[in-house]
Design goal:
Blueprint lengths: L7 H24 L2 H13 L4 E7 L5 H9 L15 E6 L4 E6 L2 E6 L7 E5 L7 H9 L7 E7 L6 H13 L4 E6 L6 H19 L4 E4 L2 H10 L2 H7 L1 H11 L2 H84 L2 H7 L6 H12 L3 H27 L3 H4 L8 H25 L3 H30 L1 H6 L5 H96 L6
Helix pairs in contact: 1-2, 1-10, 1-18, 3-7, 7-8, 10-12, 10-13, 10-18, 12-16, 13-15, 13-18, 15-18, 16-18
């Protein structure tokens, strides 16, 4: 049909609309709106076809009789009850033919001149099973380039008609021409009142001023059948024909032809824009929620790491208490006096050390308690972290929370594994070889005692008879000074031995303590890190999906806005209000 007009600007606009429809079709395909894509494809094909006039109205308003009267041939069935249960497309053809295109849609061809330039569409009555018929009409209304709305003079502008007109003008954005049918039932004064009633209520209820033509379809068909000019004039069908053929000239029809898909797309794009903006808002909210969760996870991890330091401190305290008891034992038993006394006692220092350190050298109960507390704390908090994370996904995916079914057993198993690992590893650091340590202490004690006794013996000898003999070699005063010096050195031998033993033993205890606390802190941190990593991987994949979906929605919104700008520019070229 584009080729029929000689108006270059109009022809260019029609070509631009055709190009726009191709781009919109591609966009809708990418966005996944297959149903709208199909309608746009139909409108793109329709640009090249004759002008589409859709006839709508209540059943028994005279839609079929109006079409028959307009054509002058009784092609469609007429009756007082709903006779049209599907959309019928009337087009020009070499002969009369009825073709079922799809459910609720058929095509009728007939060799009549008017159908070369206009395609007439007959629709089901708006008040006969309204919801069902609305769906039928809605599946085709996007193709209507002008709607002829038939209302009956005996019951004009009913409630169902108002509902349908609201959809026509609001949701579907169609241009509407009113036909007041059955005027043969009313006087001229009554017709004027009805027209005034329709105009006022359309403006009041629907917000537009309608173009209204009157006709008697019955008289019009009789007039054409009998060739009665008087009846033809009375039916007023010529005014309707004049409007369709003369007022709706080629350029107006061409404008209506390209305005029809543009208005349809404007309404559709408005809905799609709201939908995309709603999706973007939802994605932003979900991403923000996940980022808040990640911040909480980070904070929780820091809290747990700080709390795990408490257990490290408790382990260090246990070893510190061990060192204190060792210090007390050595301070009491590893003295010169105690060692000399032990010479006359049946219980030697090694026996006392073995006896006392059997219960003191192993901080077993303290370590077990700390290990159990730490394993319980980490497990409880790991479970809490998972529950916190899965709150974001349970509703969407219907997953069970940890603690239910197998998930709960998993946390319990991991707690037991951690506890077993720490207990087994702690054995290396909490068990002393008592016999070996007591033997080392015995050797140190004997060495110290022997050194003390040797020096003291030499000193006493120097002060006694042996000292007298030494006066031949050195002055008596010097010998006295040497003797007292030996006595003094003897008394510091045992303290020095004790100090050396204590320092070496404490150094080993400190090394054991540091290694175990380091191992324990590392295992607790690894346990926390594994859970945090699992959660972050799980949540980040969910966040990445939302990011990807948001980017897709934002891209679609940008494309839609660009296409909407092209639509507005093309609508702005129209001279039709």
């Amino acid at each position: 049909m584009i080729s029929l007009t000689k108006n270059k600007d109009l022809k260019r606009t029609l070509s631009d609309v055709a190009e726009l429809l191709k781009d919109v079709e591609k966009f809708l395909s990418r966005a996944g709106h297959k149903d709208i894509e199909l309608k746009v494809r139909e409108m793109a094909v329709q640009i090249q076809e004759p002008f589409y006039l859709l006839v709508a109205g209540e059943y028994n308003a005279g839609k079929s009789s109006f079409i028959n009267a307009l054509l002058g041939v009784k092609i469609l069935k007429e009756g007082p009850t709903p006779t049209t249960r599907k959309i019928t497309i009337l087009t020009h053809g070499d002969g009369y033919n009825v073709e079922e295109i799809q459910e609720n849609l058929c095509r009728v061809t007939y060799p009549i001149e008017i159908l070369k330039d206009i395609t007439l569409i007959d629709t089901p009555g708006t008040n006969s099973v309204f919801v069902e018929h609305e769906k039928i009409i809605a599946s085709f209304i996007h193709r209507a380039e002008l709607v002829i709305f038939i209302t009956s003079a005996d019951k004009p502008l009913t409630e169902s008609e108002c509902q349908f007109l609201e959809l026509l003008k609001g949701k579907w954005g169609r241009k509407v021409l009113f036909i007041l049918n059955k005027i043969d039932l009313k006087t001229e004064e009554e017709q004027k009142e009805i027209i005034s009633f329709i105009e006022k209520n359309c403006y009041k209820l629907l917000g537009f001023e309608p173009k209204i033509l009157t006709v008697s379809s019955t008289d019009a068909f009789k007039a054409k059948d009998t060739k009665s000019q008087e009846l033809l004039k009375k039916s007023n069908v010529e005014e309707v024909e004049d409007f369709i053929n003369e007022k709706l000239d080629l350029e107006v029809k061409m404008e209506l032809k390209y305005l029809s898909p543009l208005k349809f797309l404007s309404n559709v794009f408005g809905e799609l824009r709201q939908e995309l903006q709603g999706q973007i808002t939802r994605y932003n909210s979900e991403i923000a929620g996940i980022e808040r969760l990640e911040a909480r996870l980070k904070s929780k991890k820091e809290d747990m790491q700080d709390y795990c330091q408490k257990y490290k401190g408790e382990i260090q305290s246990a070893f510190s208490r061990l060192k204190e008891r060792l210090d007390t034992f050595l301070g009491f038993h590893m003295t010169t006096r105690a060692l000399v006394t032990s010479m006359f006692s049946r219980e030697k220092i090694a026996d006392r050390f073995r006896k006392e350190m059997t219960s003191l050298a192993n901080p077993l109960e303290d370590l077990d308690r700390v290990i159990d507390d730490a394993a319980e704390y980490v497990s409880r908090n790991n479970r809490s972290l998972w529950e916190m994370a899965l709150d974001y996904k349970n509703e969407e995916k219907g997953e069970k929370k940890p603690g239910e079914g197998r998930a709960g057993l998993s946390f319990e198993d991991k707690k037991n594994e951690l506890r077993y690992l720490l207990r087994e590893h702690s054995k290396e650091y909490r068990e002393f070889d008592i016999n070996k340590e007591s033997e080392r202490l015995r050797v140190v004690a004997q060495s110290g005692l022997a050194g003390f006794l040797a020096l003291e013996g030499v000193a006493l000898a120097a002060l006694g008879g042996f000292g007298y003999l030494l006066t031949f070699l050195a002055p008596a005063a010097a010998i006295m000074v040497l003797a007292f010096a030996l006595i003094g050195v003897g008394f510091i031998i045992v303290p020095n031995k004790r100090k050396a033993f204590r320092n070496e033993l404490f150094k080993r205890v400190d090394v054991l303590c540091e290694r175990f606390t380091g191992f324990m802190a590392n295992e607790l941190e690894k346990s926390v890190d594994r859970v945090i990593e699992d959660i972050e991987n799980n949540v980040s994949s969910f966040r990445d999906v939302r990011w990807s979906e948001r980017e897709g929605a934002m891209k679609h919104l940008a494309e839609l806005n660009e296409l909407a700008d092209r639509i507005r520019a093309l609508v702005g070229k129209s001279t039709i209000p």
